[in-house]
TrEMBL record:
Source organism (scientific name): Marinobacter psychrophilus
Signal peptide interval: none
Protein name as it appears in the record: cyclic-guanylate-specific phosphodiesterase
Keyword Transmembrane helix annotated: yes
Domain EAL: 24-278
Keyword Transmembrane: yes
Entry GO MF terms: cyclic-guanylate-specific phosphodiesterase activity
Full-protein positions shown: 524 to 803 of 803
């Protein structure tokens, strides 16, 4: 990563650097057209109760299908969407689409199912964010309590009054709030008390080594106990093996998500997964 240079320094551009920036510009111009050209798609991954296997919710995960470059994963385009501000419009589309799908599955299942949506910092702070969330709920007919917004610790770190206000407003509307990738940020744990969070999602980097690394096992157990004592719900991310589920169950972790249950699936396949999962 290039360090920011002082005014007196000048930067030598190597051919590799100009290639990188050309690639970036090309990606950016494609990203600008993506929404209008309907190139985005939401995949869904089930969130399951570890003790009885009941399906609780699904997390919406964004995919970008570009005719020239194929499927682009969020880690490659979300940061760019953040930098350019495109995330506001893209994120709005994501929330609308996710709410609509949640209503479809509710009808299919005959019972309510929650939907989790990732929200990035710039999208969260953009003017009218709360209004756009409320619009998505009223247009789709989804009750607020079935929508959960996933926010990373990074967002809370800014300590701003606006962040606190938006979180509070969303909470007052009945929308659920979760901390994503918990344990990877640097936040003081006191933020959990100060803000109206409902759920902690333990980052997959801890879950993945829980059987191999005693330190991670201790850490995960400690997070679970702490979260419970604060009345928070827990979701373990990145669960791939049955032994991990057993560990989590014994440690008292309510919910899990990961390839062990299912990979993220396109909406139609998720709906088929629902049918076969809930019929046995
Ligand atoms: P995240 O919210 O922490 O999502 C979980 C990621 O872990 C997803 O990657 C998911 O596919 C992956 N995953 C799930 N189960 C397993 C498992 O068992 N093993 C492993 N190794 N990985 C697993 P994905 O879909 O590539 O998304 C990456 C990140 O991009 C997300 O992390 C989230 O931060 C961001 N993202 C995705 N969709 C959106 C969106 O609509 N808006 C925003 N702002 N960010 C999004
Ligand atoms: Mg997430
Ligand atoms: Mg609440
Ligand atoms: Mg995560």
């Amino acid at each position: 990563q290039a360090k920011r240079k002082g005014k007196s320094d000048y930067v030598h551009f190597s051919p590799e650097m100009s290639e990188i920036s050309h690639e970036r510009l090309q990606l950016e111009s494609r990203l600008r057209r993506a929404l209008q050209q309907e190139e985005f798609e939401l995949f869904y991954q089930p969130i399951v109760n570890t003790s009885n296997g009941n399906l609780l919710a699904a997390e919406a995960l964004l995919r970008w299908n570009n005719p020239e470059i194929g499927q682009v994963m969020p880690d490659r385009f979300i940061p760019l969407a953040e930098e350019t501000g495109l995330i506001t419009a893209i994120g709005e589309w994501v929330i609308q689409q996710a709410c609509q799908n949640a209503v479809t599955w509710k009808n299919q299942l005959g019972r309510d199912i929650g939907i989790s949506v990732n929200v990035s910092p710039r999208q969260f702070r953009a003017a009218g964010f709360v209004t756009s969330v409320m619009n998505a709920l009223s247009t789709s007919g989804l009750a607020a309590e079935f929508l959960e917004l996933e926010i990373t610790e990074r967002l809370i770190l800014d300590n701003s009054i606006e962040t606190a206000q938006i979180l509070q407003e969303l909470d007052e509307h009945g929308v659920r709030l979760s901390v994503d990738d918990f344990g990877t940020g640097y936040s003081a744990l006191s933020f959990l008390k100060r803000f109206p969070f409902d759920t902690l999602k333990i980052d997959k980097s801890f879950v993945q080594d829980v059987l191999k690394d005693p330190d991670d096992a201790v850490l995960v157990s400690a997070i679970i106990n702490m979260a419970h004592s604060m009345g928070l719900r827990l979701i373990a991310e990145g669960v791939e093996e049955e032994e991990q589920v057993q560990f989590l169950q014994e440690a008292g972790c309510d919910c899990a998500q990961g390839y062990f249950y299912s990979r993220p699936l396109p909406a139609i396949e998720f709906s088929q997964w629902l049918d076969s999962y809930t019929s046995h």
